[in-house]
Amino acid sequence: MKISELVEKAGLRSLTDYKDQEIAGVYISDMVSDIITGAKADGILVTLQTHKSLIAAANLVDVAAVVFVRGKKPADDVVQLAKKAGIGLFTIDTDTWSFAKKLNELGIK
Q1: Which of 50, 71, 84, 108 has its CA 20 to 30 A from that of 96?
Q2: 6-34, pLDDT tens digit by residue?
Q3: Topology (CATH level 3) of domain 3-105
Protein backbone atom coordinates (compact mmCIF):
# COMPACT_ATOMS: atom_id res chain seq x y z
CA MET A 1 0.00 0.00 0.00
CA LYS A 2 1.20 3.51 -0.76
CA ILE A 3 1.34 6.26 1.84
CA SER A 4 -1.41 8.23 0.07
CA GLU A 5 -3.72 5.22 0.31
CA LEU A 6 -3.03 4.91 4.03
CA VAL A 7 -3.71 8.62 4.48
CA GLU A 8 -7.10 8.21 2.83
CA LYS A 9 -8.11 4.90 4.42
CA ALA A 10 -6.94 5.67 7.95
CA GLY A 11 -7.77 9.37 8.07
CA LEU A 12 -4.25 10.62 8.68
CA ARG A 13 -3.58 14.37 8.64
CA SER A 14 -0.37 15.37 6.92
CA LEU A 15 1.96 17.77 8.71
CA THR A 16 4.54 17.85 5.88
CA ASP A 17 4.89 16.98 2.24
CA TYR A 18 5.80 13.36 1.68
CA LYS A 19 7.11 11.02 -0.99
CA ASP A 20 4.21 8.77 -2.00
CA GLN A 21 5.90 5.42 -1.84
CA GLU A 22 5.05 1.85 -0.97
CA ILE A 23 5.01 1.15 2.75
CA ALA A 24 7.50 -1.58 3.65
CA GLY A 25 6.04 -2.25 7.08
CA VAL A 26 5.29 -0.62 10.41
CA TYR A 27 7.16 -0.23 13.67
CA ILE A 28 5.58 1.06 16.86
CA SER A 29 7.77 2.44 19.62
CA ASP A 30 8.36 5.47 21.81
CA MET A 31 12.00 4.63 22.54
CA VAL A 32 14.73 5.95 20.28
CA SER A 33 17.00 2.95 20.92
CA ASP A 34 14.21 0.58 19.86
CA ILE A 35 13.58 2.59 16.70
CA ILE A 36 17.23 2.42 15.68
CA THR A 37 17.38 -1.35 16.11
CA GLY A 38 13.85 -2.31 15.05
CA ALA A 39 12.39 0.03 12.46
CA LYS A 40 12.84 -0.77 8.77
CA ALA A 41 13.74 1.41 5.82
CA ASP A 42 10.71 2.67 3.88
CA GLY A 43 8.39 1.70 6.71
CA ILE A 44 6.24 3.89 8.90
CA LEU A 45 6.97 4.64 12.52
CA VAL A 46 4.08 5.05 14.95
CA THR A 47 4.80 6.95 18.17
CA LEU A 48 3.69 9.39 20.84
CA GLN A 49 7.09 11.09 20.98
CA THR A 50 7.56 14.40 19.18
CA HIS A 51 11.17 15.39 19.90
CA LYS A 52 14.15 15.92 17.59
CA SER A 53 15.88 12.70 18.66
CA LEU A 54 12.97 10.73 17.26
CA ILE A 55 13.44 12.35 13.83
CA ALA A 56 17.18 11.70 13.98
CA ALA A 57 16.53 8.01 14.70
CA ALA A 58 13.89 7.81 11.94
CA ASN A 59 16.34 9.39 9.51
CA LEU A 60 19.11 6.99 10.51
CA VAL A 61 16.84 4.04 9.72
CA ASP A 62 15.41 5.78 6.63
CA VAL A 63 11.74 5.43 7.50
CA ALA A 64 9.29 6.84 4.97
CA ALA A 65 6.94 8.45 7.47
CA VAL A 66 6.21 9.03 11.14
CA VAL A 67 2.66 8.91 12.49
CA PHE A 68 1.98 10.65 15.80
CA VAL A 69 -1.00 9.15 17.61
CA ARG A 70 -3.42 10.81 20.08
CA GLY A 71 -3.35 14.01 18.00
CA LYS A 72 0.26 14.78 18.94
CA LYS A 73 2.04 17.41 16.85
CA PRO A 74 5.74 18.20 17.00
CA ALA A 75 7.16 21.70 17.40
CA ASP A 76 8.08 23.67 14.29
CA ASP A 77 11.81 22.94 14.64
CA VAL A 78 11.07 19.20 14.65
CA VAL A 79 8.87 19.56 11.56
CA GLN A 80 11.66 21.46 9.80
CA LEU A 81 14.16 18.73 10.67
CA ALA A 82 11.83 16.08 9.22
CA LYS A 83 11.36 18.13 6.06
CA LYS A 84 15.12 18.42 5.65
CA ALA A 85 15.43 14.64 6.07
CA GLY A 86 12.56 13.96 3.65
CA ILE A 87 10.42 12.20 6.25
CA GLY A 88 6.68 12.64 6.00
CA LEU A 89 4.94 13.50 9.25
CA PHE A 90 1.32 12.67 10.03
CA THR A 91 -1.00 12.82 12.99
CA ILE A 92 -4.13 10.92 13.95
CA ASP A 93 -6.39 11.36 16.98
CA THR A 94 -6.75 7.68 17.85
CA ASP A 95 -4.58 5.91 20.41
CA THR A 96 -1.71 3.61 19.48
CA TRP A 97 -3.68 0.38 19.98
CA SER A 98 -6.62 1.51 17.82
CA PHE A 99 -4.28 2.69 15.07
CA ALA A 100 -2.31 -0.58 15.21
CA LYS A 101 -5.56 -2.52 14.78
CA LYS A 102 -6.46 -0.31 11.80
CA LEU A 103 -3.07 -0.94 10.20
CA ASN A 104 -3.54 -4.68 10.68
CA GLU A 105 -7.01 -4.51 9.09
CA LEU A 106 -5.45 -2.73 6.12
CA GLY A 107 -2.79 -5.44 5.80
CA ILE A 108 0.16 -3.33 6.94
CA LYS A 109 2.40 -5.28 9.33
Answers
A1: 84
A2: 999 999 999 999 999 999 999 999 999 99
A3: 3.40.1390
